Amino acid sequence: MHDRPHGEAPARALPYHEDPAPGSGTLPARAWWAESDAARLSLNGTWAFRLAPTAEGTGSAFLADDPAATASWDRIAVPGHWVLQGHGAPAYTGVAYLFPVDPPRMPDENPTGDHRRVFDLPEGWPADGETVLRFEGVDSCARVWLNGQELGTFQGSRLPHEFAVGHLLRKSGNVLAVRVHQWSAGSYLEDQDMWWLPGIFRDVTLLHRPDRAPADFFVHAGYDHTTGTGTLRVDCDVPGRVTVPELGLDLATGEEATAPVEPWTAETPRRYDGELVTAGERVPLRIGFRTVRIEDGLLKVNGRRILFRGVNRHEFHPETGRTVDLETMREDVLLMKRHNINAVRTSHYPPHPAFLDLCDEYGLWVIDECDLETHGFCWMPDWRGNPVADERWTPALIDRAQRMVERDKNRPSVVIWSLGNECGTGAGLSAMAAWIRERDPSRPVQYEHDLEYPDSDIFSRMYTPHDEVERIGRREEEPLADPELDTHRRSLPFLLVEYAHAMGNGPGGLSEYQRLFETYERLQGGFVWEWIDHGLAKRTPDGRVYYGYGGDFDEDYHDGNFVCDGLLFPDRTPSPGLIEYKKVIEPVRITGDPDAGTVTVANGHDFAGTGHLAFTWTYEVEGRRIAAGDLAVPPLAPGERAELPLPPAPDGAPPGEAVWTVHARLADRTPWAEAGHEVAWGQLTAVPRPAPVPPPGPAQAPRRDGGRITLGPGVFDATTGRLRSLAGVDLTEGPRLDIFRAPTDNDRGMHWEADAQVSVHWERIGLHRARHRTDAVELTDDALTIRTRVAPNSRDLALVTVYRWTAGEDGALRLTVGVTPEGDWPCPLPRLGLLLGLPAAYGSVTWYGGGPGEAYPDTRAASRLGRYGMTVDELQTPYVRPQENGARADVRWAELRTADGTGLRVTAGPDPFWFTARRWTTGQLDAAEHTPDLEPGDTVWVNLDHAQHGIGTQSCGPAPLPRYHLTAAPAEFGVEFRALSGG
Ligand code: IPT
């Protein structure tokens, strides 16, 4: 127990790593610039390294000049995390601190990495001025020595820290020693939901600072949309001139000039090359003119309300953790642009500065978030001890705000400053907000976790259900107790800074959110949680790569696969969630009325016209292209729409269901995608699906023959009534009712909210252990009828299921299934449909229906009608933790074939079905914890589902909307089976 009031500092002075003060010896925070004519030397590379168990480190020998000092040490890559380079292990927790909560103290066990690098100055390193040693990111606390002299200490992992070192430098043999503590007082401020990854994980650079070079400058570049002019002023601590040749500008620092310009926006990231010239340094500038304002309760850029189609991005690479190289950063930006994403929240810390440069270059709106989260205090009564409510920490909080704002203030992409994430409430946050507002009044400040929003210019929430978002959209949210605060909050624009938790299969419900954002101007969009699964690469004994999550690194406490909740798989392959998101947020909407012969194109961009897009159409019958052409769409201004005539239906088209597909593609190459890249699409039904025709000839009669029953091409087991074979296609398992799916992460719900876990109900009532009982096998003149009862083990619930088989003269077998529930079903069903098994050789699939990717009831926007072919293996979606996946929506027919072409064709009738095929059972899928646990068996398991329960986003957020619940209710559905001969 505490022998002193909680949170009160002990009498003796704290060691620097336990001191809440931000550090000592560092230079004031300032802007970051990547290019200039001043000399610089990267100190990235191979360093000597040794890990010690406590904050003592290895002692002082490694400070010495003696080359033998670290001769026997290991080598480590800087930037990098030692726990990903064979020293210790990563650990994952979502909320919990990995140390006793006793701020600002830390336990004695404090892995401490001593790093040492010896370097020479390059030939001609200037002798004048100053030289600065810069760290872009060290997790979590460092003490630094150069040539035996201590420079100082710092905390603030994802923030830059600099020291003046000129007086200590030698021409050669400089010994840089850095002691890095995994745990520090700063760790209390860095409780972001992610791996704990200590180390010097961003660049280390030596920067020459010539005499009369700027220490700092601030580019103010606003845009006046009423006049079309930009106003430029560059404040700088040393006098200099600013030139922008393209604009004919040449002005002194501190002076203001106005000129007609094209503004910067995320859609049109126009930058002007300029230069800041002082007596000591020439710094290239890339200036984006834009103005951010909150006006009329809306967030506006350049005078217009903008809509964020955003993602939360953590820095992550499956091999190197939060050390992310430039090419990977660029890949992130390109993937975002190609998937119609226009905004990034840098959850929950400022990213590597080069990432923001890419956002400026390619065009992404950025919420730059401070390196701050104290979420783990939520478990103490009233967040007791929370640093943001304890003034001892205020200097550290302000220091963090300063390091972010000063570093990133010159980025046009940054439109909002975020104080941090999940810190509860406290005066420290107000102090940060006040400092930021004073320093940079040109950008709004945002903070989510104080529901009264005293410090936020934006009303923001996380994972809010649709209906509540709608009320907020109407400015009809529940009032706050304090009328003044309520008035303030009600006046603010709204952002979902996190929504649609992309963990595993999902997120569901995106379309419905987007509809709200596009209906209510106050709702200015949101940021999907999150960009990428943080799965760390592991290898099976035979060398196959798979991805590990919490618990895979011998952690004694962890939060499992909650760290894998991104739109990208760890290797940056887009998951179905990203494909869905791309469709849902497409900036051009293509709809129409084929009966009237029209198509409507609506430009949903905020700033860009449609001139960069080329529109084409195809006309397909049953998924086969009959005709294609260009669609002339006049250039549309943002917000404009045009109704255009569809081309006449092609002559001589065969009968059958026909659709128009209209595509909007890039007319020309852009910096982020090739010409022809598809931005948006829409499908319109030209000829609806014909009703199934009744089979020809009289219905055939089933015949009993010993232990078998035959009906048309089908052979059945006489006892169970189960189909055994169909015209030479032997089934390993005949079709039978199936109601279970391997719970998705969203089905498993939030472990901290017991009633939000639908899969727990499923397991409790034994749905995964359903039993089948055959009550009657009836042969009549025109049908074989099997009466059964399908029931979960351990409960008196049941689905009375009647299979009615018929055959005509066309060689097909038809099955109609009637399902009647018995008892009070306490929860929705996972699925309702048929399961059948085919031999492993039936490994190739062709289908006509939705595709190409997976879809579920509330994740089907991206599924487009067409004819597709894939192998069974290609149908699988490799979620990091295996779970239900791979369903194809709206399937009219599907064929499974062997290599010689023998096959089975399943035709929907009348309703399309959800098609799934895999080489393992649902039980095996459910039991698997990692992808290599799934071993192909000797059966291809095929699900033909009449219905699926929605996906929702309840792994952190709302359940599927009620309309997507699969309630146990009477149902009838049918399919037709037909054997296909090979060759
Ligand atoms: C929210 C956090 O802000 C984010 O870091 C992440 O943990 C996410 O949830 C879930 O993956 S906090 C949530 C518990 C409301």
UniProtKB/TrEMBL annotation:
Residues 1-20 have a biased composition (Basic and acidic residues). It catalyses: Hydrolysis of terminal non-reducing beta-D-galactose residues in beta-D-galactosides. The keyword Hydrolase applies. Keywords: Glycosidase, Hydrolase. Gene3D superfamilies: 2.70.98.10, Galactose-binding domain-like, Glycosidases, Immunoglobulins. Residues 714-978 form the Beta galactosidase small chain/ domain. The keyword Hydrolase applies. Its EC number is 3.2.1.23. Residues 1-21 are annotated as: Disordered. One of its GO terms (molecular function) is hydrolase activity. It is an enzyme of class 3 (hydrolase). Pfam families: Bgal_small_N, Glyco_hydro_2_C, Glyco_hydro_2_N, LacZ_4. Belongs to the glycosyl hydrolase 2 family. This is Beta-galactosidase. It comes from Streptomyces litchfieldiae.
